[in-house]
Each structure stands twice: as structure tokens, then as C-alpha cells.
Amino acid sequence: MSDKKLKYTLPFIILALILIFVSRNMSNHILLFPFWLNALLYFFSLVIAFYYTKRWNIFTNDTEENKKSAAFFNGILAVLLAFVLLCAFRLPINILIKQQSVKNERITQTCPITFYSLGLKNKQKKHITFSFQQKSIRMKVKPTVMTKIKMLQTPQKFIQLQVRKSILGTYVVEDYEVR
Hints:
By secondary structure, the protein is α+β, with helices and mostly antiparallel strands. It has 4 helices and 6 strands; from the N terminus they run H-E-H-H-E-E-E-H-E-E. The protein folds into 2 domains: 9-101, no CATH class; 106-178, CATH 2.40.50. It has a 6-stranded antiparallel sheet. It is elongated, with a radius of gyration of 21 Å. The N and C termini lie far apart (56 Å).
């Protein structure tokens, strides 16, 4: 690996992490994002990533025995780059979904919570799973919501969602409360 190839690595990693963070946070509030669109975007991302990884050839080696390891690391780099590209492709789609949802009226939907973590070993992972329109949805929630879920004495817990319908059959969560 040459120093010239590593010149832009740190700015790219910082930009990629920011892009992933913003895209994932925005995606958390969009329900029922079409699987086919996600798969199509990831396929295009993989094609683009493998093309550029092969073209850039960042991990290279002249010896025959190390060519397999260089190809392996280039493959891993391509998969990681494809994930970053997927986040980049989804970001404008998510923005469009949120903009289109503002045109529709707010709907209140009460959904049964099917799974939540009882232990808080890792305080960063606060996800719940609930049933929305006969589909299982996993959503990251605020820490106060997890505390409220654990304090409720009822065996069946519900989440009340304030959603707006949008394009592609998606819904945008504007607010939620546990009951």
C-alpha cells in the first residue's frame, strides 16, 4: 500500500461515519421502507464499490502467496464501501419520504410491543420491536421510553405512534409514547 493511496483515508473515514450516522438516524423514523428498493440500492452500491476497489487496487502485493490475502482485503473494503454508498443513496430518498409525508394528515396508531430488552448491559442499545400493519418493526427508542416500559406492570405493553403516510408505502414516525 503506498502513502499516496492513504492520503485521503482519514477524511474519507470521517465523512463516511458522519454519513452513516445521519442516514441511520433518519431511517429509524421511517417505517416499512421497501425491501426491494433497499436490495436494489445495495446491489448498485456493490457493483460500484467492486469496480472502484478493483480500479484503485489499494491492497496490492507482487508475491503469489500474498495475492489471495490482498484480494480478500480488497473484497472487505468493497463491502464496506458498498455500505457507505447505500447510506449515501438512501439519504436523499429518506429526505424525500419525510418531505412528502408532511402533505398527509397525522394518524395515531397503537401497536403491541413484541420485544424489548429487560437488561441494560449495553446502555446504547435501546431497541424495541413492535407489530405495525402485520409487520415486525425494530426501532431505536429514547432511554426514558425503555425505563417507562420496564416500570409498566401490565403484561402486554403498547406503543402509540403518531405517523404520517408517505410515498412508497412508508410511514414517518413523528412522535411515540408507551402505554
